[in-house]
TrEMBL record:
Matching InterPro entries: Gal_Oxidase_central_sf
Top-level taxonomic group: Eukaryota
Record protein name field: Glyoxal oxidase N-terminal domain-containing protein
Signal peptide range in chain numbering: 1-19
UniProt keyword terms in alphabetical order: Signal
Species of provenance: Knufia obscura
Length: 149
């Protein structure tokens, strides 16, 4: 049901943005997430953030050649911005805080054979601040869940 509500909200947003008429029950491809969309959230500014697990087949890479595991999609101009993530977010939960910050909790273990720069996410807390110029999820050293998920 949440996915349906999300798709309905995105369809309404894209209809407004593109000034096109979309018939009820119909979807139109407007852009690409750049990463598999394991998690998606509509941000207050109308952009959509996508967060994926650690894997080796995303469309978006950083300048150093490493795969991106999170992106922000702007439905107004169809721009895609990659975000760095410090820990494996597979199977994490998420919620918005009162100030608009998106927080995700938990995740999965590291897959060092795939990407040794991504840490254990089982007890991770990740924050995406409510601001326009973000380039990464924030994880504060020593700030973790009290137990692994």
């Amino acid at each position: 049901m949440l996915f349906t509500l999300f798709c309905t909200a995105i369809t309404a947003l894209l209809t407004t943005v593109n000034s096109q008429h979309v018939l009820p029950g119909q979807f139109e491809l407007a852009g690409r997430s750049g990463v598999p969309a394991m998690h998606a959230a509509l941000l207050q500014n109308g952009n959509v953030v996508f967060l994926d697990k650690l894997e080796n087949y995303t469309e978006v890479k950083f300048s150093n050649g490493q795969y991106a595991y999170s992106t922000i999609y702007n439905p107004y101009n169809h721009e895609l911005q990659s975000l760095s993530v410090a820990s494996n977010a597979f199977c994490c939960a998420g919620a918005f805080l009162a100030d608009g910050t998106l927080m995700t909790m938990g995740g999965n273990g590291p897959l060092t054979w795939l990407d040794d720069s991504i840490a254990d996410g089982f007890d991770a807390l990740r924050y995406l601040p409510n601001q326009d110029k973000r380039t990464s999820w924030v994880e504060y050293p020593g700030v973790k869940m009290s137990s692994k998920r």
